[in-house]
Each structure stands twice: as structure tokens, then as C-alpha cells.
Amino acid sequence: MSPLIPVETIVERAFDVIESVDSVENVVSDLRTLLGVDHVVYNCSGSGSDPTVRPYVKMTYPSDWIKRYVLMDYANVDPVLKRGFSSALAFDWSEIVVKSAQEQAMLRDAIGHGIGPHGLSIPVTSRLGHRGLFSVSHSGDVDVWRRYRADNIKGLVDIANRIHRRVLQQEFGETRAHLTVREVECLSWSAQGKEAADIAGILDISVHTVRDYLKSARFKLDCVNVAQAVSKAIAHGLISV
Questions:
Q1: Which class would CATH give 181-235?
Q2: Taking Cα atoms as reference points, which of 170, 158, 166, 134 lies closest to residue 41?
């Protein structure tokens, strides 16, 4: 069992791992160490929506569990996988409603192989609808796990989306979405030192809307804050100052 590490303090280091480490297999291994969890798993597929069709999976699970999982055809039973590829929101494994004896047996088998029992899965979707699932699991004290999950879910979501984009670009050739006109405008004014309230007045929109545009631009540019998004947009020629 690994010590849980506050994710918010290491998001940028996690991003560096995702962008610079040579293979996705090594990325998940390094993220496991960096995040201090027992296991990290990333799932997607060649079909874009069905995890059992041409599956693309990188994980830190032990080899005996991977062999068992394949032998028992658990991909067609796994309740985490089912929910992850049909949901848009992150979910704790404790929230899963087990619907069949096969699912119960599979989860018991997983615990017997050292998987869980605590886990968080984060569904991710690209602009073209290509779905993926990023999961972390832990076997420690349930109260410690709950605090870790509550404190760090935002950082884990950012990490999940970053690794999803790398896989889609590297393995499936899917490119990053372009910024909208409004996103460019908001970033351009931010680059000139304007705050959200100032931009709202200039563009005649609400402050909340400005913040939403800046957030979506940051998300598309894979940046953790607006300042980084502005810098990256300038570097890529998306805005000028």
C-alpha cells in the first residue's frame, strides 16, 4: 500500500510526465508513483466508444490479475468499465450498484488479487466523442481515501484529460480542438492584463460567461491556469499582443 500524496501539489509534474515520458505504459507507471496510489489504469478503444472493441489499455495491475481478467472475459462483466463508458461524471467505486452475481464475483476476485477496494474512475471524452476512462485505486483506510478523493478530484480530472489527449493524438491521430472566437477574445484581453470583470464590460457579457470561456480555453490548451493558457496561445499563434 502506497502513501497517498496530495494531487494538487503535483499536477504540473504529472503533466510533465504525460508529455515527456516515452510510452503511455511508462506514463501510467510513473503516475502511480507520483500520485502515491496502488494502481493507475487508462482505458479507451479503437471504436471510440466501446471498451471491448480493439481495447487500448495501460495499467499497473499485477500480471496475474491481468491474465485472470482476460481468461474470465471480465471486460464484458466489469461494472467499473460499464459505468465509465456510459457516464460523463467521475465516480467512486463505492457508488457502483452491483447488478448481477457475475459482477459480484468479479469484484471479489479483484480484491483477492489486490485491486481496490477503494477507487475513483474519471470518464473522459474528446471533441469527436472518443471516450476513455482513467482510474486510480487504493487499499488503505477508507476515511483516508475519502479525504484524498474529496481534496484531489479536480487535479485527477485534469490529469485524466491530459493523458486522454496524448493517447488520442499519438495513437489515433485526433487533433486538439480549435479555440472559438470568444475564447480567443477573452484570452487576448487577458494577455493585455484585463481581469474578468474588465473583459465582461468590453465584450458586453457576464463575468461568469467570461470565466467559462477562459476555463474552456485553458482546458483545450492543456493548461492549469489562465496565465499558462495565454502564454501557450501566443506561442502557437492563436493570439497576438
A1: mainly alpha
A2: 134
Fold match between domain 7-171 and domain 181-235? no
The string of DSSP codes covering 106-143 is HHHHHHHTT--SEEEEEEEE-TT--EEEEEEEE-S-HH
Encode 181-199: b = buried (16+ Cβ within 10 Å), e = exposed.
Answer: ebbbbbbbbbbeebebeeb
Q: What percent of the chain has pLDDT over 90?
A: 69
> Domain extents for the chain?
7-171, 181-235
Given this structure, which CATH class describes domain 7-171? Answer: alpha beta
Q: Which pTM was predicted?
A: 0.71
- Reading across the β-sheet that carries 55-59, which strands appear in turn? 55-59, 39-45, 131-138, 118-125, 91-92
CA distance 221 to 228: 9
